[in-house]
Amino acid sequence: MSVHSDAYAASTQPEVTARLTVYLVAVGAFALGMASYVTAGLIPMIQTAFTIPVEAAAQLVTAFTLAYGLGSPLIVAFLPGRYQRAGLLAALGLFVLANAASALATELSWLLALRSLAGVGSGVYLAMGIAVCATLSPPAKRGKAIAIIMGGMASGTVLGVPLSLLLAERLGWASAFWLVAALGLSALAGLAWRLPKLPTAATIPLGRKLALLADGRVLAILTVSLLAAIGSLGMYTFIAPFLAEPEHGAIRSIAPYLWVWGLGGVAGSFLIGPLADRMRGPALTLAIMLCLTFALMSLPLAASMHPWLAVLPIALWGAVGWALQVPQNNELIRTREAQGDGNFAVALNESALYLGSAIGAAGGGLILLMGLPLSSLAVAAGTVGAVGALVQLTNMRRH
Known about the structure:
Blueprint: H1 2-50, H2 54-78, H3 84-104, H4 108-136, H5 142-171, H6 174-194, H7 206-210, H8 216-237, H9 239-244, H10 255-278, H11 281-305, H12 311-323, H13 325-336, H14 342-369, H15 375-398
């Protein structure tokens, strides 16, 4: 009897270790979600504390996102495969230290530099965390593992940001960064204690890693992620002025709608996991892009009928917008598994999201400068989503 018990314990140990690693990485992702969005809410407080104009304080957001989107793929590309475990822990450590130091910053120049370091740490950690958990998890459960990580990040945005802003209102802007650092430190301690030794990946020259950009399937996946971010995150930038328009309900408090969008994102991130393990990734991505297109296109009509009807497309928009990256990252890892550069592919995918957000915001601003009605923002965003669905369909037929 004991022999069978020992054999069973030995067989289940790797699965238990993998599950624990996924949850610890998700705790770190929760802190990342807070750090990615909390700075925007702290701008008025930082503006007052440093006696600077609002446009200068806003550059703190730019510093984080640019470092995240541009710096992290470079570091992941140069990191040797044998340092996966050390790289993951170092990235999270950099994130923790940068946020703790941000809370102590007394000059804007230092704070800008520290937000850039936090952005680099965030991007490297998320890309490597997803890749590590995919390596440790059985192939049939990779989708669920990635969904838990993305759900952690969505939860950090939806639940963590309001909590940290509430704390900042009572204890000062620095307390928000202390909270982010504390959560990151708890994940770091857990991973340093329980993260197992990872299989040594082959050292891949930088030239071979960059060769993945010639892989048509990878380019198609990255293009769909970019287009989805342009439509989804670009429209999110203008959701407040959109709903403030008289024809869309003249909403004064945008908070309930942002909560609906965020809670939809949390639900979508977690619920997509089982589907990602059962359905073909490309087909699931196509379905998500079609739902995103429908949600964005129907938003003006729903809002014009009654303000509360707008919560339906907003909830769907949030759910599929966040859920998309689960099958996308899963497919990138599967596509590049044989080449051993899945973590670099995931880092590029995260960069596509931040680049898409910036393009979407700029495009929306251009639409407003042209004097077009705000409803055209949702239509344009939905059109970009439809183009993304068409790219996905073409990619599925080609491969």
